[in-house]
Amino acid sequence: AAVASRLSSSAPAVFHSILHPQISAAENRTNLGLARAEPRRMVKAMAGCPAKMGFRMPAEWEPHEQCWMGWPERPDNWREHAEPARKTFERTAMAISKFEPVTICASAKQYPRVHELMEHQPNIRVVEMSMNDSWFRDTGPTFITREGGSDIGLAEQTIAGIDWEFNAWGGLGGGCFDDWSLDRSIAKKIVEIERIPRFAHTMVLEGGSIHVDGEGTCITTEECLLNPNRNPHMTKLEIENELKDFLGVTKIIWIPLGLHGDEDTNGHVDNLCCFIKPGVILLSWTDDENDPQYEISVKALSALTQAVDAKGRQIEVVKIHVPGPLYITKEEGEGVLATVSIAAMLHGSFVTPISTTCNTGQRVIVFRGMLYRGYQARDWPPHT
């Protein structure tokens, strides 16, 4: 289950991770040493409909085995040659590793540095992997899980990965960069390393464009999935059917637009809202009618409150206020979004970004109160 968004002005690291669902405590990884990891064996792409084989995409709060992260490097995408981002990724990986294993993927150029940084961290593994950028929530596989069975010829396999097509959030002329050939292989490499079945799909989809409750409901935005720069040959109904067949959901709730200013992803749903438990959605909100986000949030609220989930429950919406403008210098880079709807839900804890411009305390209270009682809060300072 993916847990993160591409954009944040406060803490990008966890926002590019993907969570591997947990099989069982006995099957947890025991060899998380620091080493160049080669695929243990090739896993051929599986044919057929995952949902009919009993697979489903789990909710982010469900038990999982580990967290996968990419390591930032691009100087044209990250300010100051990605140095502030790397520091934040390092802190984030260490925070997550207190609760579950972390696998960090780094390019051959960055691998020696990351290896040195993490060599004394027993719960962090470093893997050398080529990539165009580090947005693993979007480029990595969508992990799906099932109770068991032998429908795919691997009776012991209860986890599989969906390898969606990727086009750098829009393709040539509209995407974030012109060469995404390495990112297209990330999902395949991860499922090979994990030795799990791989369901390849030709539909363009990023992990941040969908969010599920684990009980049959998926939320997404029309702005992204119906954008002509993704799958212009597919109708809305065809996209719905593919999501149902591959994610194991039975209900799709469409929200018109994503967060204001989310031009890179064309309105990923995870920057705007997310499930925090079945039937309950956290929604980015503002009371300022002059804020361009206001109308977007009102439309989203209307779509959500008029919908029922796969279990027939009326959707409960919890509003959380977005921050106001954050002023930075030209050297610090162009403005990016500070999303408030994201936290990494770990084993008995959660990691969430903090910001001097948004109500972090409100967000912590919401996640503690609405997700599970007894959760601890783990946060880190904004990058500098």
UniProtKB/TrEMBL annotation:
GO terms for biological process: putrescine biosynthetic process. The keyword Hydrolase applies. InterPro entries: Agmatine_deiminase (IPR017754), Peptidyl-Arg-deiminase_porph (IPR007466). Keywords: Hydrolase. Gene3D superfamilies: L-arginine/glycine Amidinotransferase, Chain A (3.75.10.10). Transmembrane segments: none annotated. One of its GO terms (molecular function) is agmatine deiminase activity. Pfam families: PAD_porph (PF04371). This is Agmatine deiminase.
